[in-house]
Every structure is written in structure tokens, then in C-alpha cells.
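Subject: mismatched residue count in predicted assembly?

I count 366 residues in my input, but I want to confirm that the predicted structure covers every chain. Input:
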Amino acid sequence: MRNLSLSAALALACTSGAHASTLLTPTAVNLNTGTQFFSIGNVIDNSGLSGAATSANYTSITHAGASGTTAWTTDGPAADYYTAAPAPVMTLDLGGTYHVSDLVLWGYHFGSPNNNEAKTFQVEFDAPTG
Amino acid sequence: MRLTITDNHFERRRGGERGPRRLGEVKFLGSDLPLVNASAGATYSYTTLPTFSGGTFYLDDPHPGYATAGDYGVGDLNDGVTHPNGSAPTTGPVNSIVGWGDPASIATDITFDLGDTFYVPEQIVLGSHLWAAFANGAPDSVTVRSSMDGSIFTDLTTATLGAPAGDGHWDLAVPIEGASAARFVQLSFDGGAVLTGNTPNKWMLDEITILASVPEPSRAMLLLLGVAGFALRRRR
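Triage response: the counts match. Full output below for your records.
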């Protein structure tokens, strides 16, 4: 059996070398733009992961093949999504304020490296305004 | 965090088309923000100036023109100096104590302008100095508020402070849950009456430390565009 793991690291800003990194799981997610053929909640609930991911082991944690209980996907409005729908936007609440150094993603696959993956992201963040 | 998927890899099984947007799981690597003493170097003001009918020991030094509201120097509360343990309050620079009385029920608000926006406060430490022979007590409660503009404040917590065990300097910790971005922190005291061994006729502070997280980068929204480099691994 062959499993596929995809991870991405996108340096944001202000990496704090003096403080130990923690793997942060968002406490809530809201899909601002896009549809949910599979629920967006699946991207923050650890569903499909091969174990409990930490900052020490996340590079070895894999994600199971996509299903309606382990992954999120939009509807397929056209063969080429971007000709028919806007880019999906999701807001993730980290439940606190942190130095964020990396974005960690597990992709969507059917057990083979078919490049069925998001490729380019725009990441925005803001401080709580109280 | 807001995440926008701006493009997909072309999907082989769809003949090179870019199908629905998809993800398996999303997390972030991060660390707690470092805490700093945000009150050091800040300015602050009182609604009721420190005073005591029995003398001038407990004014905020230096205090030229102290009788005129707003025309006084401040610094005792954030100069990093606490009054020594085992030492009775005295006159002169060594006395870093400010106090309100007599009676001990005199209330005041102390508003700090931190000079910049912090994630505040994570914790506030109220330094007090008790001296039973002088009937010097401590604050018994405090309400903490924060504000971005110095005029509209939001209540963060009201804490009841425990009774220190005896004479000397005491640090009274006020933990805050749910820090938010703010520039102004207001501490509202309704008087005080905590003292062992005598009935206090005044309540004292000798230092206030506001521990906060520095917003780095500063409060403006940051926008970064990035193309994630994917690591593809196969495991059997």
C-alpha cells in the first residue's frame, strides 16, 4: 500500500528563533468564499492524519486518502475551476496570538501522486482588535 | 489567518484541468509571543492623586505643583523601584510608595498610556508595601480595562486581591485571560483595606508592572503572497 503525504512550508514573517515552536491547530474555520462538497471543518479536525501531529513529528505524519470525512473540497463547477468560480477563501482562528512562522498543509489525494493539490496561496493575518 | 487558494496544480487524472479546490488538513507552526514590561517607559495619570492627610510621604515623586491636577510628575509606579522589605516608609528618593487615605476607602483610576499598541495585558503585577505600625494597607480589588483610543474602555477583569501576610513589599498578581490589542490600560481601585495587625487608614502601591506581548510586526495587517513549495513523499 502506498500512502502520500504532502506538506508545504510557507515562511510568513517574524520567525522567533528564541521561542520553541508549537504546531498550532486552528480552533475554528469559516469558508468565506467557496463551496463545500466535503465539509471545510475537515481541514482542522485532524481527520485523516496518521497520528497526533506535533512540531517534532509533523513531517512524518501522513494524511489518508480523501473522503467526505477527512478532507475538504469545493464543488466542481467546471473542468477548470477558475473559469467558473472565485478563489476559495477561508478564515482560520488560532485561538490566541502567536508568532507564526510556517503554514503546514496536508493535501488531498486518492492514494497516488496525481497533483490534485492546491499550489499557490495568499496568506493574510491580523491582530485582534479588542 | 485568512487563507486563499489562488491556484491549483493541474490535475493529471482530469486531463490537465484544474478541478475543485481541495485540502486535507491545515495547521501552522508558531510560538507564544514574548512578554515585555509594557509599563516601563509608559506615562500614566490618576483620577485622584495619591495623597494622605497625615503627610506627604506617599505622593508620586517628583511632584512639583502637586496641588494642581495634571501638574505633577509621575514615576514612582513604573520606575522599577520598590520599597525595601524591612524598611519603614521614609521621606526622600528611597520612598517609592504612593498611597491614598485617610480613609482607606478613597478610590482612584490609574490609566497607563503604553505609547504603542501591545497585546495587553497578559498579567499585571501590583506592588504594594504594607507597614502595620503606620496603618499602611494594600488594595483589596482592582478592575482592569483596556482601550485603543484612551476614551472607550473595555472591562477585562475584576480581581479580588488576597491579604498579604505582613509588613514589607508584596507583589499581587492579576492574571488576565484573553489579551487584546490596546494602547491604554486602566486600573480602577475602589480603595483598599488589606492589612494584618492593624486597621488600615490608607492603601499603598509602590510599582505597577504590565506584562504584555509586543505585536510584531506592528498592528497593520500583513499580506504576503507566497507560492508554497511542496514536498512530496511516498511511503510504503
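Chain B touches chain A through 62 residues (CB under 8 Å). Marking this ticket as 'not a bug'.
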